Amino acid sequence: MKLGQVLISAEALEQLILGVIAEQGELVPLNRTAGDEGLLEILAKAYKGSGVEVSRMGEKVKLRLQLLARYGVKIPEAAEKLLLRLRERLRELAELEIVEAEIEIRGLWLD
What we know:
alpha+beta, 4 strands
């Protein structure tokens, strides 16, 4: 017996996606707080958005991610791993399917 419906806001989806990005650690959102990391902190302050755009069509989503990569990371491999993890987690936690995704690496950061 269905009692109603569950709605997931765009903001909640964005937070879920940011959580998955944070779990993997090789790629980070543009607005990440960087503490005392110089150029990265300057970039983070200049960039106001999260770098996550979500377009939803029912139970399907399109993603556009603008991220920074840790220096030395194999970017194509890191992006593929992130995308697989995002597909898994969105299906598991929100019953949503990614039908299209674009990951744009906007810069690098050094540890």
